[in-house]
Amino acid sequence: MKQNTIIAIDGTSASGKSTNARIIARELGYIHVDTGAMYRTLAWYCLQKKVDVHDAKAVGALCRKWKTSLQCTDNQVHLLVDNYFPAKEIRTPEVSEAVSHIAAIPKVREWMKNKQRECAEFGNLVMEGRDIGTNVFPETEYKFYLDACLQERSKRRAADGIQENLAARDQRDSQRASAPLMVALGAMIVNTSEMTPQQTSQKILAEIRKRLAANEQAQLAKARS
Ligand code: DC
To answer: Which residues have any ligand 1 atom within 6 Å of their CB?
Structure first.
């Protein structure tokens, strides 16, 4: 049976992952998955339930019993909790501050990895996050790592009306023991500091199409032999 194709887009906060992942998914007719939103949903749920996000045991226990489901609508997969996707609530400064703490908990990462791998049942994916190419789908041949200088990333967040300490969050994401943010083997690195989303997505799309065509050729040659 043909496996669904997974495009892994990892990188630092505000490096352009979401904007580009959306454009690329739309252009290819793939499904977009924002895994950061899944971690944010758990962070929000912890705050709702008054669970201390620094207490790994308590967060792990909550993660084992929360009632979730995956929903695919308009080519986007969302993680629902109690049948609800907290789209707006997960973008608050409180959740942004809490999220990298819960994302460092190994039991949480294990749970998220299983859920994120389940998403492949919906079809071909463009999945964005921090560890998609290294940990969630290390077997994919389509890996991209986005970065931009801190000044530019802070400017982008400020333009969205969001003030946050990106450097501190990046440090926590890169230095945690469990599946830290790093460049996956074979990933194409794209520095988006001086590029528009249009330029970035076209560059990535060109590489994806090149790799897809090479794979198709290899499979045809294999079938013929
Ligand atoms: O992409 P974002 O800013 O919405 O991600 C929120 C947090 O979730 C981020 O600080 C790191 C964490 N995260 C992660 O550890 N692994 C992922 N695959 C996605 C997000």
So the answer is: 13, 35-36, 39-40, 99-100, 103, 129-132, 169, 173
Q: Tokens 């074979």, residue?
A: 186
List of the chain residues with pLDDT < 50: none
Quote the domain boundaries for residue 151: 9-224
The answer to whether residue 133 is domain-embedded is: yes
State pTM to two decimals: 0.95
Token representation of residue 215:
């794979």
- Is 2 a member of any domain? no
Residue nearest to atom 10 of ligand 1 (CA): 100
Residue 32 amino acid letter: H
pLDDT on residue 207: 98
The predicted pLDDT at position 1 comes to 59
When divided into structural domains, the chain yields a total of 1
What is the reported pLDDT for 91?
93
- In this structure, the number of other CB atoms found within 10 A of the CB of residue 96 comes to 20
Mutating to test ligand 1, I would choose from 10, 89, 96, 99 the residue with most ligand atoms within 8 A of its C-beta, which is: 99
Which CATH number characterizes residue 105's domain? Answer: 3.40.50.300
Ligand 1 midpoint to CA 221 (Å): 40
151-201 pLDDT, tens digit per residue, is: 999 999 899 888 788 888 889 889 999 989 999 999 999 999 999 999 999
Which ligand 1 atom lies nearest to the CA of residue 90? 4
- Sheet order of strands, 6-11 included: 68-73, 76-81, 31-34, 125-129, 6-11, 142-147, 188-191
